[in-house]
Amino acid sequence: LLPNGDFEERPKSSLMRGTEVMGHDSIPHWETGGFVEYITSGQRQGDMLLLVPEGGHAVRLGNNAYIKHKMGAVKGQSYSITLTASRTCAQAEQLYVSVPPGHGILPIQTVYSSNGWDSYAWAFVAPSDEIEVIIHNPDSEDDKACGPIIDRVAMKQLAPPRARRGICFNNSIHLGHFGWVLYISLYNFIA
């Protein structure tokens, strides 16, 4: 996990208004912007009960909200960012995951797991020795609190793929001068 990637280190109550996180550095180890909520498992949103499958806390990214984390990396090395996410509103939602200058779009549309959360991954090549991981909800809905809930953000260094005889190299992972992107949904493994 990234430091506080499970969001169990909570913001000080003086830095919150209800569930809304006030201030850009209120969540330990993360910078926030826009309408970000700190969610506690069992919290209610109207008639819906918000559950967090692991631990007791997560963050919800409302209209045009983001969380970001700065960290060290090895320039030119491949990494994967994984996270779990859940929808809280009826319309299709999406997340932008980026390590500037690259980014990926993760559609949060249909839930394939029994607990209401899906796991997502995005791979990238580190552009420098210090990177900034940004998870952003680009949507602007009438309800500013409408947006995906995020938990369990992790990053792992990937071993470069090796070409071997008789194996289809680069099958559904695209390598090229723009780096490479990998999108995984648990549905692919269940179906």
- Percent strand equals 35-45%
Q: CATH fold name, please?
A: Jelly Rolls
Give the helix tally.
Answer: 1
Series of secondary-structure elements, N-terminal to C-terminal: EEEEEEEEEEEEEEH
Number of strands: 14
- The CATH superfamily is identified as Galactose-binding domain-like
- What is the count of structural domains? 1
Question: Which class of secondary structure composition applies to the elements?
Answer: mainly beta
| Main sheet attributes: strand count, strand direction, barrel closure | 5 strands, antiparallel
The overall average pLDDT, rounded, is 82
Identify the overall geometry. Answer: globular
Radius of gyration: 17 Å
Percent helix range? under 10%
Question: What tags apply to this protein structure?
Answer:
single chain; 191 residues; mainly beta; Jelly Rolls; 5-stranded antiparallel sheet
Describe the fold and architecture.
The chain is mostly beta strands. The protein has a single domain, classed as Galactose-binding domain-like (Jelly Rolls), CATH 2.60.120.260. The protein is built from one helix and 14 strands; from the N terminus they run ββββββββββββββα. Strands 3-8-13-10-11 form a five-stranded antiparallel sheet, with no helix packed on it. A five-stranded antiparallel sheet has the order 4-7-14-9-12, with no helix packed on it. It is found in: Secreted, Cell wall.
